[in-house]
Specification:
mainly alpha
């Protein structure tokens, strides 16, 4: 996935090399910003795909922890109340298959979310550099961590990665609460 993001950035930079000179100061940075914006447009879908894993994991956990199949007369009760005969073995197989699919979805969504943050942060940091130096023409001394605006830009750009990662983790945690732990009895 990281290679795909890199290839997209290379293609975007190549397209900007076709522009006539003098249109903009750093066309590649603009192109990288467009790539990041494109990934951000996919954000809701990526987060939804990322959240599918905990939902399927919770469904499997609820089924296993309920031990419904051990309740006496439960098959007859379900058949009477809901009009179908349950197959607990088949349900367990379906839940395990869905849990595997959910883990695969999580594994494919994380690189897109993190890659989006990295591309966006890189573009943001370079934009701050361009702003502080009027397009790399003056005030080059401002490109120092001793200059407050430059340091703030680096911190904001670097924090963007963690903000995206944290938002993605919160979306997953909201649907995947911590498991119940038994307390040891004292006495």
């Amino acid at each position: 996935m990281g290679l795909v993001i890199t290839i997209l950035m290379v293609i975007a930079a190549w397209i900007t090399s076709l522009f006539p000179g003098g249109i903009m100061i750093a066309p590649a940075v603009f192109a990288f910003g467009l790539v990041a914006f494109g990934f951000l447009g996919m954000g809701p879908i990526t987060i939804a795909v990322d959240s599918y894993g905990p939902v399927t994991d919770n469904a499997q956990s609820v089924f296993e922890l309920s031990t419904i199949e051990t309740l006496p007369g439960i098959e007859e009760e379900i058949s009477r109340d809901f009009g179908f005969r349950p197959s607990f073995a088949r349900a367990k197989d379906y839940l395990e298959a869905n849990d595997g699919a959910g883990n695969t979805f999580k594994a494919t969504a994380k690189p897109v979310l993190i890659g989006t943050a990295v591309v966006g942060a890189t573009t943001m940091i370079f934009s701050i550099i361009m702003l502080l130096t009027s397009g790399l023409t003056v005030d080059m001394d401002k490109l120092s961590i001793l200059h407050p605006q430059f340091l703030l830009g680096l911190v904001m750009g670097g924090a963007m990665i963690y903000w995206f990662t944290g938002a993605s983790m919160q979306a997953v945690q909201a649907q995947h609460p911590p498991r119940f732990r038994r307390r040891k009895s004292v006495g």
